[in-house]
Automatic annotation (TrEMBL):
Cofactor(s), by name: Zn(2+)
Name of the protein described by the UniProt record: Aminopeptidase N
Ranges of residues in domain Secretion system C-terminal sorting: 708-768
Cross-referenced PANTHER family: PROTEASE M1 ZINC METALLOPROTEASE (PTHR11533), PUROMYCIN-SENSITIVE AMINOPEPTIDASE-RELATED (PTHR11533:SF174)
Length: 779
């Protein structure tokens, strides 16, 4: 038998000692006391004075013998009295916790109730949420982003304010006769007494206290119905036309979620329009929705859909602790993609996924101090980018790992099992493992409990004809962005393109760092291969895909690689990928470059022989992309260069067709790399690696004034300098192979070139000191 005194003592002690564990102790309190029902008599006739008064009847049962005290959360209001069957009870209250001395001992399974009379002006959170009075409006937003705990039922009624405790609600709300109150549940009665209107609401579905709500305004009601579910939309009379237009796809959202998540289990769908300027709040059956979002357009349709989806993720099944908020908010954000796919098709959803992915890979680890798992996010980031945005991408990836049938059947049965209960990540993992023939535990280890992202890229491929089809050998490589270990069993879609734009897609599974895949029965000889072009896997890669028919500028949406097509005689198929992971290291035995450890690009496709485009890449050690190039241009841009290789197995070398535009200041860490010609291949930023050279080892060109001419050239090149006797010139091909090495025996030396044409990298050394390096073109 548990000791209720001990539970209360532990709860109070931990509240004082450590706010971090407050939420877990809140849940512990619910292990000894079960709140069954709240009945709230509220007087909202003095909202112009930002004042409310009420009587809260709290019906509860004890789960242990010997309960003598009832602790309730109530924040910064005045407690006028507490009664039990009209008997005054003693209590203590410190503006945060109300501890009621019960008039009798309550034993296990006993049901009792108290009535708390209270009044005051409810508070607001410093950042987001609370109780608001604005003009003719009074309303609550049920969480506080800064508050500990985040649950904000306690700002307007006494309650057990945690994610675990659930109770049914009823409301009697008095307002002036020109005002209308809306609450959770169904309106069961409305009476008029002089200039006071009383509306009675009942919610028979048990919810946590943060999902309880009230809104008061001169509302008109728009009544609708879909799939026999009542819909009630509340707005000012002048806003009803805009409201109906902006909510015209609400039935589509309901269909998307009912068809994929299971039945809608609440008594109605409701939205109350409020003048809140920073989002919405998913109060069960009566969502507080911002007035700015009903402008007569569908510009905020995903916000409408997001809040509705909480009636599965958050309201029906609720995260056990705030550290598991991704199950509420990440799944609701994923539901935005599901809504867009249902209404407009997957291509529209893919656009939203890529926009979210761009935000996450560029900002989440910066804004929230580090790469974080979506489970276990600390208090200050409960409502941050990892929870909402990365959480949505994790859910999207989970769908791809499992496949649609297993995923949607699994989450529907999970929501049914945990309806009107709390949930956590381990429970979701274990449940899905019962629904799938594939062990989903590695996915949760990598994506839910692990930080960062992988990237999967094509290293090389070859094809051989086999009857009327082709057999493909394909090597893929995994790299990491903010993760510590390689991801396991990662599915990716590989798409092959033929010369005539034929297309064939297969799914492969990548494990560890490198993987080789043998793919048979491709019905054409592939000329171009892509990985994950459908973005069914959200990895740390952003891309732009073009079908180019005519010259013109192509401003990148996601890849940060702008193109200006100068000539194209036939259509071109071009994909530009921006990889957010370390570029492969340079072989410093022949090229002393420090290459970017944060990002690089790949350009690939099918282009006609006369295709010509220029390009522009931005480097930055400040602003939105500041983390990308800080290690290369944090103090000066003088040494920044652009490296290139044709395929992933080649060595890097400096690209010969570019110039650098420092945009007026070579020390601000910001500028452009402008490509005179864009070739298919990989590109990365780099600078001279002084850990190899040493600052004293690189002599300035002015000391010996090296010149190589002509360049481009044919057959030979002249090397001139001041006092260059004893120096040595080494010539490398683009794969990093040493082709030729000659001593410079005089101040003007003619070097015979190899017979093959192409691009070469030259390095001039004196002993082991590099004096000059550059690119030479042999025509």
């Amino acid at each position: 038998m548990k000791n209720s005194f001990l539970i209360l003592f532990l709860f109070l002690s931990v509240m004082v000692r450590s706010q971090v564990t407050y939420d877990n102790m809140e849940n512990l309190r619910s292990d000894s006391i079960d709140v069954l029902h709240y009945h709230l008599d509220l007087d909202m006739t003095q909202t112009e004075n930002q004042f409310i008064s009420g009587a809260a009847t709290v019906k509860f049962s004890s789960l242990d013998d010997g309960l003598q005290h009832l602790p309730l959360d109530l924040l910064a209001l005045t407690v006028d009295s507490v009664k039990q069957e009209n008997q005054q009870l003693n209590f203590s209250y410190n503006d945060t916790l109300l501890i009621i001395n019960l008039g009798r001992v309550v034993d296990s399974s006993d049901v009792d109730s108290v009535v708390v009379h209270y009044s005051g002006s409810p508070t607001q959170d410093a950042t987001w949420g609370g109780f608001f009075f604005s003009g003719n409006y009074a309303y609550n937003m049920g969480v506080g982003f800064d508050a500990k705990p985040h649950n904000y039922g306690r700002i307007w009624h006494p309650c057990f304010d945690n994610f675990k405790e659930r109770a049914t609600y009823s409301f009697n709300v008095k307002t002036d006769d020109n005002q209308v109150s809306t609450c959770n549940g169904i309106l069961v009665n409305e009476t008029q007494n002089g200039q006071v209107t009383t509306r009675q609401w009942e919610l028979n579905d048990a919810i946590p206290s943060y999902l309880a709500c009230i809104a008061v305004a001169p509302y008109a009601t728009v009544h609708q119905n879909h799939r026999n579910i009542p819909i009630e939309l509340y707005s000012l009379p002048s806003d009803t036309n805009n409201l109906k237009a902006s909510f015209s796809t609400l039935p589509d959202a309901m269909d998307a979620y009912i068809d994929n998540y299971g039945p809608y289990r609440f008594s109605k769908v409701g939205y109350s329009i409020v003048p809140f300027n920073a989002g919405a709040m998913e109060h069960a059956t009566n969502i507080a929705y911002p007035r700015y979002a009903i402008d007569g357009t569908l510009g905020n349709e995903t916000l409408m859909a997001h809040e509705l989806s909480h009636h599965w993720w958050g309201d029906l099944a609720t995260c056990e602790t705030p550290e598991e908020m991704w199950l509420n908010e990440g799944m609701a954000s994923f539901s935005e993609y599901l809504y867009l796919e249902h209404v407009y098709g997957y291509d529209r959803a893919k656009q939203a996924i890529k926009q979210t992915l761009e935000t996450v890979v560029k900002r989440a680890h910066i804004d929230e101090d580090e790469f974080r798992p979506v489970s276990g996010v600390p208090h200050q980031y409960t409502y941050g980018r990892h929870v909402y945005d990365k959480g949505s991408l994790v859910a999207h990836n989970l769908r791809f790992y499992l496949g649609d049938s297993t995923f949607f059947n699994g989450v529907e049965s999970f929501l049914d099992q945990y309806r009107f209960k709390t949930m956590n990540s381990e429970q979701l993992r274990d449940h899905l493992n019962t629904q799938s023939t594939t062990d989903i535990s590695p996915f949760f280890d990598d994506w839910v409990f692990g930080a960062g992202f992988p990237t999967i890229e094509i290293e090389e491929f070859s094809s051989s004809q086999s009857g009327n089809n082709y057999a493909i050998e394909l090597t893929t490589e995994q790299k990491l962005f903010g993760a510590d270990e390689f991801y396991t069993n990662v599915p990716v879609n590989i798409t092959f393109y033929g010369q005539n734009r034929e297309k064939h897609t297969v799914r492969v599974v990548h494990d560890s760092q490198f993987a080789t895949h043998y793919i048979n029965n491709v019905p054409f000889d592939p000329q171009f291969v892509t990985v994950n072009e459908d973005v069914k896997l959200a990895q740390a890669v952003l891309d732009d895909f073009y079908e180019i028919e005519s010259p013109g500028q192509l401003t990148a949406d996601y890849s940060n690689f702008d193109l200006d097509v100068k000539q194209v005689s036939d259509s071109a198929l071009l994909r530009v990928e921006h990889y957010y992971s370390a570029a492969d290291e340079v072989d410093k035995s022949f090229q002393p470059y420090k290459i970017s450890n944060t990002h690089y690009w790949r350009v690939d496709g099918i282009i006609p022989i006369d295709f010509h485009a220029t390009g522009s890449l931005q480097y930055s050690a400040s602003g939105t992309n500041s983390f990308l190039d800080t290690g290369l241009v944090s103090t000066t841009e003088d040494s920044l260069i652009l490296l290139y290789r044709e395929i992933g197995s080649d060595q890097w070398s400096e690209y010969p067709h570019y110039s650098k535009n420092v945009l007026g200041n070579p020390n601000n860490g910001f500028g452009l790399i402008q490509l005179d010609t864009v070739l298919l291949g990989e590109y990365a930023f780099a600078n001279l690696d002084h850990s190899v050279l040493g600052k004293s080892e690189l002599k300035m060109p002015s000391e010996k004034d090296y010149k190589l001419y002509p360049n481009p050239t044919k057959d030979f090149v002249n090397v001139s300098c001041n006092e260059c006797k004893g120096s040595k010139l080494s010539l490398f091909n683009v794969k990093g192979q040493l082709i030729k090495e000659d001593e410079l025996t005089q101040d003007l030396t003619r070097i015979q070139l190899p017979d093959s044409t192409g691009k070469y990298i030259y390095i001039i050394k004196d002993d082991d000191k590099i004096l000059e390096r550059g690119t030479l073109i042999s025509q």
